Amino acid sequence: SQQGEEDPQALSIQEGENATMNCSYKTSINNLQWYRQNSGRGLVHLILIRSNEREKHSGRLRVTLDTSKKSSSLLITASRAADTASYFCATDVSGTYKYIFGTGTRLKVLA
Amino acid sequence: DARVTQTPRHKVTEMGQEVTMRCQPILGHNTVFWYRQTMMQGLELLAYFRNRAPLDDSGMPKDRFSAEMPDATLATLKIQPSEPRDSAVYFCASGSGTSGDTQYFGPGTRLTVL
Fold first, then answer.
1. Which of A29, A90, B38, B65 is close enough to B88 for a disulfide, judged by CB 3.0 to 4.6 Å?
2. Which residues span the domain enclosing B65?
3. Do A43 and B97 touch (CB under 8 A)?
4. Residue B100 contacts by C-beta under 8 Å, 6 or more apart in sequence?
């Protein structure tokens, strides 16, 4: 399947530290998105990066994309306890409107 | 504040019973997606619609699952008969149907089949 895989599966850090999570995918994409899911809630869109972009910022979020390696990373700087959640990458499926979601990284930020 | 709504939020039923989950997409959105989330399988796409027409339901067990959009404000997912392995959280999401579309997720229906 085209499902992306995220690494690490789980990450525990102290408040104020940076958190980096990685996503690898299998086929060519037009764009890649990152979503956050708080426990017991639906997913919330964070940021989109297109295949012709290498880096994108939004507030404390920094996303990179390396299409040659079929990988992306999400960096959360100066993490807060409220950042505790699962983070998913989602890759588009060419010619369709659908996205395939990765396995997710569970981030825990300790106060 | 536009959001996707789903009902019921929780459902406990016995094996063999019919289950119907409902979703109201954001007004004006023309793509609707149904996902299932479990610890083992993660987030799986079951089916999706564009302009109320089903475009892909390849992720759905055809013998027991069915998805429909009776109108632009309602999407339904039915399971008949339900089985314990159907226990999961079912999410509906909607989007505006453009390239690089953001999907807006509902809160989910947590289904437990005993």
1. B38
2. 5-90
3. no
4. A30, A31, A33, A48, A50, A92
| Residue B17 domain-assigned (yes or no) | yes
Closest partner residue to B43 (CB to CB) among A44, A50, A88 is: A88
Identify the CATH number of the domain in which residue B73 sits.
Answer: 2.60.40.10
A21 close to A37: Cβ distance less than 8 angstroms: no
Please report whether residue B112 resides in a domain: no
Which pLDDT tens digit goes with each residue over A14-47?
Answer: 999 999 999 999 988 999 999 999 998 999 999 9
Q: How many CB atoms neighbour CB B100 within 10 A?
A: 14
Please give the tally of structural domains in chain B. 1
Question: C-alpha A84: how far from its chain's center?
Answer: 14
Q: How many domains does chain A have?
A: 1
Using an 8 Å CB-CB cutoff, list chain A residues near B103: 35, 43, 45, 90, 99
- What is the CATH number for A76? 2.60.40.10
| DSSP conformational letter for A41 | S
Tell me if B103 is assigned to some domain. Answer: no
Q: Containing domain of residue A27, as a range?
A: 5-110
- Cβ–Cβ contact B31 with A under 8 A: yes
User: Is B100–A101 a contact, with Cβ atoms under 8 angstroms apart?
Assistant: no
pLDDT tens readout for residues A59-103: 999 999 999 999 999 999 999 999 999 999 999 888 888 899 998
